Amino acid sequence: MTETISGIIVALAIIILTRLLSGYFTAKLLAATILVAIGFIYVGFSLQNNSFALIILEIAVALFFYFMAIIGYTRNSYLIGYGIILHGVWDIFHHKGVLIGTHLPSYWPSFCLVVDIIDGLYFLIIFKGQKKH
Predict the structure, then answer these.
(1) What is the distance of C-alpha 105 from the center of its chain?
(2) What contacts 53, CB < 8 A, 6 or more positions away?
(3) Helix, strand or coil for residue 75?
(4) Environment class of 51 (CB within 10 Å of its CB; exposed 0-12, middle 13-18, buried 19+)
(5) Entry pTM
(6) Angle in degrees, 0-180, between the axes of helices 27-46 and 2-21, rounded to the nearest 10
(7) Is the dihedral of CA 26, 68, 129, 125 positive or negative?
(8) Any long-range contacts for 12-20 (C-beta under 8 Å, 24+ apart)?
(9) Contact in structure between 39 and 59 (CB atoms under 8 Å)
């Protein structure tokens, strides 16, 4: 429950910061940056006591999110919002190491899932309200 409440608080903080920074950076740029950053978090976790195969898997998935952010930024911003939500699915795969066995704190997948879903939906709503995607 703590990770859920913390995830909600962090997601809301990201939304507030996005709104505060909107005079300096576009929501699309901030969302793309978030997608790239969250994509590489599991790479960092994988470098601690994991197999080479898991490290390569985490790098490959991080690069997928990286390119999704770039393509979303240059072609269709919806891809960024969907990418953030898709990262939430990637979080589920790590829950209790059932599908992906990367060693990480037990609370992390649940916490990150909450943040990703809330913020991904927020950015999709923002992008829907903009004329050009």
Answers:
(1) 17
(2) none
(3) coil
(4) exposed
(5) 0.88
(6) 140
(7) negative
(8) 12/118, 14/115, 14/119, 15/118, 15/119, 15/122, 18/122
(9) no
Ranges of each domain in the chain: 2-129
Q: Are 55 and 43 in contact (CB under 8 A)?
A: yes
Size of the chain, expressed as the number of residues it contains:
133
Structure tokens at 4: 């859920």
Residue 41: CB atoms within 10 A of its CB come to 17
pLDDT by 10s per residue, the chain, length 133 = 898 999 999 999 999 999 999 989 999 999 999 999 999 999 998 998 888 999 999 999 999 999 999 999 999 999 999 999 999 999 888 877 677 777 888 888 889 999 999 999 999 999 998 765 5
Tokens of 117: 């879903």
